[in-house]
Amino acid sequence: MKILVAIKRVVDPGVRVRPLADGSGMDITNAKMSINPFCEIALEEAIRLKEQGLATEIVVVCVGSHAVQEQLRSALALGADRAIHISTDAPLEPLAIAKILHTLVQQEQPQIVLLGKQSIDGDHNQTGQMLAALCGYPQGTFASRIEFKGDEIRVTRELDGGLQTLALKLPAVITTDLRLNQPRYPTMPNIMRARQKPLVVTELADLGLNLQPRLQILSVDAPKVRQQGIKVSSVAELVDKLRQEAKVL
User: Fold this and answer.
1) Can you list the residues of the chain whose pLDDT is less than 70?
2) Could you tell me which of 39, 51, 79 has the C-alpha nearest to residue 193?
3) Domain range spanning residue 108?
4) What is the pLDDT of residue 247?
5) What is the DSSP string of 178-247?
6) Which of 95, 103, 102, 111 is nearest to 172 (CA)?
């Protein structure tokens, strides 16, 4: 069984970024970059399925500039077998990424496509669902548990009212949530071996896709600074403050 894992290069979660002065985007100059945390969980789950003998090959793909090869090599060091880099410097919307992945699914014919449920930069939470629609595959989103039962794959997902378990026929698209697993760290021997693993670069233009943008960013602004809170010494003082400030009583 082949698993295709899509990853994204994002600003490291520990880095605090600010909007550009002209409001056209975020200032990520010289910012530390890493694999999107939700994508790391998807990759970790693929590796665990391979360790259980349920998968035979893990192919990881990333779309972006030459810089994304750093994250692809990291994925290879973690346990992916080969990597595909779709090279482009253009910013792409979720639908465009879904179309690119759809083309790769047609080429690679994986039984499972694993993605993080969303990226921490755009927070769109759309690519996995769009990809499933384009492929005509069943989908299990926000997966907090994945297990095989016969010829089906069971995906448990968290809802507001509890847990829901879906039985999917393969091939399928699954997006991963935080509680699915805890990603591992690469070992030094695996980092060295990752340099020898195949990484294929394909130009986006060679895919022949219509990726016309549908959205336009008008401005990016920092959230308003909240006013400093106060402490009260008693319930009576709290009620008095609510009457004066919030006017709720």
Assistant:
1) 246-249
2) 79
3) 2-246
4) 62
5) GGG--PPPPPHHHHHHHTTS-EEEEEGGGG--------------PPPPPPPP---SSHHHHHHHIIIII-
6) 111
Q: How many whole angstroms separate alpha carbon 173 and alpha carbon 127?
A: 10
CA 162 from chain centre, in angstroms, equals 23
Distance, in Å, from the CA atom of 84 to the CA atom of 70, rounded to the nearest integer, reads 12
Q: Which of 170, 87, 157 is nearest to 117 (CA)?
A: 157
Compute the residue count for the chain. Answer: 249
What CATH number does the domain containing 182 carry? 3.40.50.620
The pLDDT score that the predictor gives to residue 246 is 65
pLDDT tens sequence across 139-192: 999 999 999 988 899 999 988 888 999 999 999 999 999 999 999 999 999 999
DSSP character at residue 73: H
Specify the number of domains making up the chain.
Answer: 1
